[in-house]
Write a structure and sequence with these properties.
single chain, mainly beta, Jelly Rolls, five-stranded antiparallel sheet, 1 helix, 10 strands, 44% strand
Length: 132
């Protein structure tokens, strides 16, 4: 029984085991979607594949630098929230927490406009997280 308890604790504490906890330390964050972007200025969309309601989002960028010009969050009721922000991401960095208007919103999709900074480092990977 003691060996089983030790094994269970080691699995729980293993880094990267659950996407919802990755890098946040708060179990309320859920991955809404991930997109690998092109090497030039462009627009992309992440379709939120999770059901549920969210009160904030946060953006993670891996594998390359990226400048994000704008973020628009489309809600389930058809409303659109323009985050009105410009963020320069270094590889492996996060945005600030972006609070959504009103609480508990269903997110349908997230549109973002960007420009990659360095072609030689590979394509940037953008992940959007939602806080419920």
């Amino acid at each position: 029984m003691k060996m089983l308890s030790i094994l269970a604790v080691s699995v729980i504490l293993m880094p990267g085991c659950a996407a919802r906890l990755r890098g946040h330390g708060d179990a309320g964050w859920e991955r809404l979607g991930t997109r690998t972007v092109n090497f030039h200025a462009d627009h992309d969309t992440i379709l939120a594949g999770l059901q549920g309601t969210f009160r904030a989002i946060r953006i993670e960028v891996d594998r390359s630098e990226l400048e994000m010009f704008d973020i628009k969050v489309h809600f389930g009721n058809g409303e659109v929230f323009d985050a009105g922000t410009r963020i320069h991401f270094h590889e492996g960095t996060w945005s600030r927490v972006i609070d959504l208007p009103r609480t508990e919103r269903i997110i349908k999709r997230i549109d973002f406009w960007y420009k990659t900074q360095h072609r030689g480092e590979g394509r940037a990977v953008v992940t959007v997280w939602g806080l419920n």
